[in-house]
Amino acid sequence: MKIRVLTALIVLSIFIPLVIIGGLLFNLFVLIISLLAFNEMLELKETKKALPLFMKVISFLVYTYIVINLSTTNEFIYTLDYRSVALLIFIFLIPIIIYHDNKVYNINDGIFLIGLTFFLGVSFNLFIILRAYSLMHVFYLLVITTMTDTYAYISGNLIGKNKLLSIISPNKTWEGLIIGTAFGVLISVVFYYIAIDSNINLFILTVCTLLLSLIGQLGDLVFSSIKRLYNKKDFSNIMPGHGGILDRLDSIIFVVLAYVLFMFII
Q1: Nearest to 111, CA basis, from 83, 98, 87, 92
Q2: Final residue before a domain boundary, out of 106, 133, 160
Q3: Same domain, 125 and 84
Q4: 7 within domain boundaries
């Protein structure tokens, strides 16, 4: 527990100032974290089948481009460049013919790289775009995930008896989900009302925050199911007491993606 707390304090002492500062330093920090997360997924994949070195190098380059691809405006606008999409598909699928050896590189590998590059690339790109849009909105999403996870963990350990999905995550309980969601929503709504907009419709804000809290917990379960598929407890051991980057960011990744759907409502 001491190692877990110490690691958390060190990470927060680096992360919070960078979030506040924003700009290039924050963008570089997100890029580094995102590359570590991407590498965790690649290493997980390679526990069952290795990928060609050339394809891994290409995937890192394409992934980096997606993460740092910034909007040219100061508004929170999402665009999809079909030229980039087509190029991405060609890059990962044409090598199937070039290698012409299913044991080296096949359609499953290509689809995996396309999906992973889009999924994590867009997610971490949204971190950067959201911070450029509003510091307080970033903190709002962080409050949702940290408060939900914290109270779910505490209540689950103290009174949790009914397992949520034991086959995926043995330690999660219905009691933890309910209490974690309740406190996560309450604290986050108060934060938004005080720090962002006191004129907000509280009913709409509460409903959206509730959905974001639940989606964050679903994200946690999705990443847990990925680990179970590969028979892994953690994505890596880069953070003593916490596991890997994706072990800590599983909820916030889904919350950031979901916020795209809600941010123009609240």
Answers
A1: 92
A2: 133
A3: yes
A4: no
Do 107 and 192 reside in the same domain of the chain? no
151 and 211 share one domain: yes
CB 213 within 8 A of CB 106: no
CA–CA separation, 106 and 86 (whole Å): 19
Question: In terms of domains, do 95 and 190 share one?
Answer: no
* pTM, full prediction: 0.91
Q: Are 236 and 8 in contact (CB under 8 A)?
A: no
CA distance 92 to 141: 33
Q: Going residue by residue through the chain (266 aa), what tens digit of pLDDT does each one get?
A: 567 677 778 888 888 999 999 999 999 999 999 999 999 999 999 999 999 999 999 999 999 999 998 654 555 555 667 877 888 899 999 999 999 999 999 999 999 999 999 999 999 999 999 999 899 999 999 999 999 999 999 999 899 889 988 888 888 899 999 999 999 999 999 999 999 999 999 999 999 999 999 999 999 999 999 999 999 989 998 888 778 999 999 999 999 999 988 877 77
Domain that holds residue 253: 135-266
- Tell me how far apart the alpha carbons of residues 38 and 119 are, in angstroms, rounded to a whole number: 10
Instruction: Quote the CA–CA distance of 169 and 224 in Å, as a whole number.
Output: 6
Residue 64 backbone dihedrals phi, psi, to 5 degrees:
-60, -40
Instruction: Report the domain count for the chain.
Output: 2
